[in-house]
Amino acid sequence: MHMQVLVTDPIDDVGLERLRAAGHSVETAYDIGGEALLDTITDANALVVRSGTEVDEAVFEAASDLIIVGRAGIGVDNIDIDAATEHGVIVANAPEGNVRAAAEHTVAMTFAGARSIPQAHTRLRAGEWAKSEYLGTEVNGKTLGVVGLGRVGQEVAKRLESLGMDIVAYDPYIGEDRAERLGAELVEFETCLKRAEFLTVHTPLTSETAGMISTAELELMGGGYLINCARGGVVDEDALAAAVENEVLDGAAVDVFADEPVAADNPLLDVDGIVITPHLGASTEAAQENVATSIADQIDAAFAGAPVMNALNAPSVDESVFPRIRPYIDLAETAGKIAAQLLDGRISSVSVSYEGDIADEDVELATASALKGVFEPLEWQVNAVNAPRIAEERGIDVTESKRCSRMTFRVSLPLR
Ligand code: NAD
Ligand code: MLT
Q1: Which burial class, exposed, middle or buried, applies to 334 when counting CB atoms under 10 A from its CB (0-12, 13-18, 19+)?
Q2: I want to staple 253 with a disulfide (CB 3.0 to 4.6 A). Which of 76, 113, 122, 278 is the partner?
C-alpha cells in the first residue's frame, strides 16, 4: 500500500529510508508552519515531527487523509492530541529511544554548571587563564532533588546516585516502590525544593507543570543549582534568570526554552552563571536512529491497520501479545458490524464479553475494534482511536466483561 508521509522536522535518515523501503513516498519540508504547513499537508497520510512543528486543530482540519502523527521523540506538548482524537488520527511517540541520551545530557549539564566548564572554556579561548576565579562544587555527598521520576528522571537518579549523591524525588503519580528501587526518597514538592542542592526537572509540560518552578520555589531552594533538560515553560525563565543573577541560586543549566528557537532577548542568555544548550538532550546518533526507526515502524503499522505500539490516543498492545490477540481484533470488528446491522433502532449500550483464553489478555484494542465495527456504518472516519470517544459523546454505555472458561474463545456483543 503506497502512502504519503510528510516530515516537517529533521529525523535520522534511517527512518526515512525505512519508510521508502516499505513503499511509501516521503516528502521532507523542514521549518514550515502556518499556512505553508496547511497547504503542504493536504494529501499526507502520515506526519512526522519533533518538537519544532506545532500540530494544532487547523492541521487536522487541513489533512483529511491523515492517519497518524509520529513524534520522533518523547514530548508531545506541540501536538493537540484531543484534536487528533476528534479527527480519528493516531498520535504516537518514541518514548524509549532517547531516554539515555537525555539522561546523559542532564548529567553533563549538572557538571557543566557545577564546574563552570563553558564559562572557563570561553575565557581560556579568549586568552585568559582564570584559574583562581572558578571554584566549583562537587556532586559527591550532595542531595539531588528530582522533580518527575519517570523514564529520564530515573536514569538521571541512577547515574548521579552512583556518583555519590543522595536522591530525593517529587512525583505525585508514582508509587513508593519505584522510588525505593532507585534508592530515592519520595517527598513533597516543598521538601524536595528545600533539601535539593541540585534540582533536576523531568516532568512533561502540562497545564499542571507549566510555571511550577518560579520565584517562590527558587527561594525555597536557597542556593544550589537548577537543571532543566525537560521542557521550557516548567521553570519560569524570568524568575530563574533573576535568581541566578541575584545569587539566590549558585547557578543553573538549561537545555529547553519556552519558545524555541530561543529569541535573542531571552533572559537566560545573558546571565553568566547559567549554562545553556539549544535543546540537545536527544541529540546523539544512537538516540536519533532509535526514535526515527521506532516512528517509521509505527507509521507502517498504522498504514497496515496493525496496532501502533506507542499510540497515545488509541489502545496500544505489547508486541509480544499482539499475535495472540490479532484474530480477536478482527473478529470483534466483524461482530460489531453484524450486531449493528441486526439492530433496529437507536444504540444505547454496547456490551462486549470475552470468554476463554482471550479473557486473560488485555482486550482494550479488541473492544475499540468492536466499537469501530458498530459505528462504521453510522459515522464518517471512525476508527479504533475515536470509536470509544464517539460512544462517550453519544451517551452509549460500553461495558467489557471477561470470564475464563475452558471454551476456546467467544466474543459476544449484544447491543441495546
Ligand atoms: P515520563 O512520562 O516517563 O516521566 C515524566 C514523569 O513526570 C512521570 O513519572 C510523571 O508522573 C511525572 N509528573 C507528571 N506531572 C508531574 C507533576 N506535576 N509533578 C511532578 N512530577 C510529575 O517522561 P520522560 O520520558 O521521563 O521525559 C521527561 C521530560 O523530558 C519530558 O518533558 C520530555 O519531553 C523531556 N525530554 C527532553 C529531552 C531533551 O532533548 N531535552 C529529551 C527527552 C525527553
Ligand atoms: C523529546 O521530547 O523527545 C525531546 O524534546 C527530544 C527532541 O525531539 O529534541
Answers
A1: middle
A2: 113
| Probe target for ligand 2 pocket from 69, 93, 98, with the most ligand atoms within 8 Å of CB | 98
Q: Answer yes or no: 260 catalytic.
A: yes
Q: Please state which architecture CATH assigns to domain 322-412.
A: 2-Layer Sandwich (3.30)
pLDDT per position as a tens digit, 37-75: 999 999 999 999 999 999 999 999 999 999 999 999 999
The predicted-structure confidence for 244-269, as pLDDT tens digits, reads as follows 999 999 999 999 999 999 999 999 99
* Topology agreement, domain 99-276 and domain 322-412: no
User: What pLDDT score was predicted for residue 342?
Assistant: 87
Percent with pLDDT over 70 in the chain:
96
Residue by residue, DSSP assigns 324-347 as HHHHHHHHHHHHHHHHHHH--S--
Query: Of the listed 260, 289, 364, 400, which one is catalytic?
Result: 260
Euclidean distance between CA atoms 189 and 187, whole angstroms = 7
> What are the angstrom distances between the C-alpha of 221 and each of 45, 54, 194, 328?
48, 34, 5, 54
Instruction: Provide the residue count of the chain.
Output: 416
- CA-206 nearest atom, ligand 1: 15
152's enclosing H/E stretch is: helix 151-161
Pick the CATH number of 99-276 from 3.40.50.720, 3.10.20.90, 3.40.1080.10, 3.30.1070.10: 3.40.50.720
- Closest residue to atom 37 of ligand 1, CA basis: 230
Q: Place domain 4-97+286-304 in its CATH homologous superfamily.
A: NAD(P)-binding Rossmann-like Domain (3.40.50.720)
**87 in active site:** no
3-class DSSP assignment, residue 151: helix
HSE of 311 in the Cβ direction (CA atoms, 13 Å)? 29
Taking the CA of residue 102 as reference, the ligand 1 atom at the shortest distance is 42
Q: What pLDDT was estimated at residue 331?
A: 92
* pLDDT surpassing 70 at residue 315: yes
